[in-house]
Hints:
- The chain has an eight-stranded antiparallel beta sheet, with no helix packed on it. Strands 4-12-6 form a three-stranded antiparallel beta sheet, with no helix packed on it. It has a two-stranded antiparallel ribbon with strand order 1-2.
- It has about 250 residues and is mostly beta strands.
- The chain contains one helix and 13 strands, in the order H-E-E-E-E-E-E-E-E-E-E-E-E-E.
- The longest helix has 4 residues.
- It has a domain of about 170 residues: Jelly Rolls (Sandwich), CATH 2.60.120.
Amino acid sequence: MTSELKVDKITPASGTNTQIGEAGDTTNLSAGTVTLPTSIITGASEKTTLVDADKFLIADSADSNAFKHVQKSNLPSGGLVFIKGGSTTSNVSNVSITNCFNATYRQYLLIFDYTPDSNGENPRIQFQDGSGSNINSSSYGYAFSGQDFSGGSENTVANNNDTAFQPGQGTKNQSNTDYPATSGVLHIINPFSSSHNVNWMGTLLNRGNNGEDRAYAGAGRLNVQTQCTGLTFFFGSGNVNNATIKVYGIVDS
């Protein structure tokens, strides 16, 4: 039997819910526009950590936009996950990024820039151990080679037994935070493993104390196998004038 009911409004009795149809019935709303309150989404409880079995509602464009669900485990993965950062716009002795390495990621991307408060200072970076103390033993080996933008003299920064990693040399004090003395992008591998040497490689841009710009590429290694949890940025002497530092975890797949 087919019947039709046309009304402007259906209001449930006080304290009750309105039910349309019985269990097993199909209710077709395709002939019109259904307006739902945004509170259906905004009023629902929030889940802050997704798991593989969580599901999302989609319209499948390959199947006439039929409603289907996709599990989180089937979503594309990979990419970068921001973990932690630090910054300053006033003179400080160092900028410390604690607990930025953990067992979740094997590889990290470090993006940084920082500037000294006086000309001619060498930028320095030390890893932090599991207790948060700086690793300052003579165990940093690195070699970065580059050239002035002018195509003039070549520059090499290298050491096999340094007490810190040196990403450049003789930097210039720049009061303008948009023109940092030392900038870099480094790929760091296995910092949290206590049975693997920490390796890093990448590129650096250095503003020399005479105003020359230098571009470097190279790599380095921490020649002790210890669990590293963080980083400390400082200069050979003097203070950090300004800095912006960000650490990202690299998702494996």
